[in-house]
Amino acid sequence: MSFDGVSVLVTGGTRGIGRGVVQAFASRGAKVTFTGRNEEAAAATIEASGNADNVRFVAADVANPESAQAAVDAAVEHGGGLDVVVNNAGITRDGLLMRMKDDDWSRVLDVNLSGTFFVTRAAARRLMKSRRGRLINITSVVGLTGNAGQANYAASKAGIAGFTKAVAKEMAARKVTANAVAPGFIQTDMTADLGDKVADELKNRIPLQRLGSVEDVAEVVVFLASEEAGYVTGQVIPVDGGMVM
Ligand code: NDP
Question: Please, are residues 199 and 187 in contact by the beta-carbon 8 Å criterion?
Fold first, then answer.
């Protein structure tokens, strides 16, 4: 799977899964632009990519439509167009429903779901111009199954699945594919506070008996972005060690 000269935008590439996705594309020759808000962490992503010339950071809050547009513009400038968009930026603000604050609800929906919409809308024309437009949205198995204490997060991630299918239907005539990847429990900052006991309990619920790595997710994203995946669209693909079947 070659990505020589392919222009890729990854949101939330300063850490975790997004950083792994940046690395996976950069190591295959893509021109990668990534967003986030932490400049220091961004520098570490560029260094880890091993291909600093091809990787560019743009500070952007995806929950802000102007910021999302600026990120797309930066990717077009850096890559000479835009072929692949990976909407990965996401947050959690967990709490039981009855105690969930308005702001915890709206911020999670704003970043995870509206952010995905703002970036996709800003990129749509460019993706349709590309010979091989690809949209990949990172959702979660929690969007498929629900999870106590994550009503906001589950709603945002289920929303991403519906959004992806609608966009897949709208853009299919222009040969753009749109898919979602639904990670299970992946070892990143987002899951770092679980503690060993919870991690062990989780492993018992995972048929492959381990938590996932960022590379497990990144490689599926890369496949969906490849020319070889041109006949896959509108799908939500779990990468979860078999947890949800
Ligand atoms: P991390 O918390 O490690 O990283 C989140 C990334 O999103 C950071 O780069 C952060 O950048 C960026 N980000 C957060 N808010 C914004 C914002 N408003 N605008 C732009 N960027 C933002 O998360 P993970 O790597 O674990 O998760 C990545 C995605 O995968 C998320 O969508 C998450 O929901 C999903 N996922 C993760 C799972 C897991 O087990 N880890 C399981 C299922 C899904 P910065 O801090 O620089 O702003």
Answer: no
CA of 77 to the centre of ligand 1 (A): 25
> Reading across the β-sheet that carries 55-59, which strands appear in turn?
55-59, 31-36, 7-10, 84-87, 134-138, 177-183, 236-239
In the chain (245 residues long), the average pLDDT of successive 10-residue segments reads 94 98 97 97 96 96 98 98 98 97 98 98 98 96 97 98 98 98 94 84 92 97 98 98 96
* Ligand 1 contact via 51 beta carbon (within 6 Å): no
Q: What is the CA radius of gyration of the chain?
A: 17
Best of 190, 194, 214, 244 for a ligand 1 pocket test (most atoms within 8 Å of beta carbon): 190
Atom of ligand 1 nearest to the CA of 212: 40
The Å distance, Cα 173 to ligand 1 centre, comes to 31
Task: Encode pLDDT of 205-217 as tens digits.
Answer: 999 999 999 999 9
Q: Which residue has the tokens 């950083």?
A: 19
pLDDT score at 148: 96
